[in-house]
Amino acid sequence: GVQTCALPIYEKDISDSTFRALVKADEAGYESMVMLPADCGVLDIYATAMVQLGAIKEFLMSHPQTTLKKLFIVMTDEQSHEVFTKYYKRIFKKRRVTSGTSSTKS
After folding, report:
1. Beta strands of 1-106 (E only): which ranges?
2. pLDDT of 27-59, one tens digit each?
3. Which 3 state secondary structure label does DSSP give 41?
4. What's the predicted TM-score (pTM) here?
5. Average pLDDT taken over every residue of the chain
6. What is the rounded distance in angstroms from the CA atom of residue 60 to the CA atom of residue 45?
7. Crossing angle, helix 45-62 and helix 78-91, to 10 degrees?
8. pLDDT digit string (tens) for 53-89?
């Protein structure tokens, strides 16, 4: 049979690195930023989306005067897009943030 091995999600690492990247971008005066899902292609995309988007919300709440106006999370597959969209709607439901989604097929 096929054996699978799930790697543990290091939620604190994902949260801290996402938050620090946003702080550095803000300190540099950037208005936009691009990120990839922090799942490295092998970790649990559900936990990753929840933690990474939670860190983004935490940053926005703790830095209301941020220079960042646009943050793009680039997805390479449909499942990641669906999961991040689902958690985005949950996490940011009370905040008026526009979510532009586009999909390109190769």
Report:
1. 32-35, 70-73
2. 999 999 999 998 876 678 898 999 999 999 999
3. coil
4. 0.77
5. 84
6. 22
7. 40
8. 999 999 999 999 999 999 999 988 999 999 999 999 9
Amino acid in the structure at residue 59: F
Type of residue numbered 75 = M
Residue type, 67: T
Structure tokens at 83: 């999961």
Number of neighbouring beta carbons within 10 Å of residue 52: 25
CA atoms within 13 A on the CB side of 37: 26
Name the nearest CA neighbour of 84 among 56, 64, 105, 42.
Answer: 56
**Which residues are CB-contacts of 87 (< 8 A; sequence separation ≥ 6)?**
46, 49, 50, 53
**Residue 12, both tokens:** 């604190």
d(CA 64, CA 62): 6
Looking up tokens 């092998």 gives 42
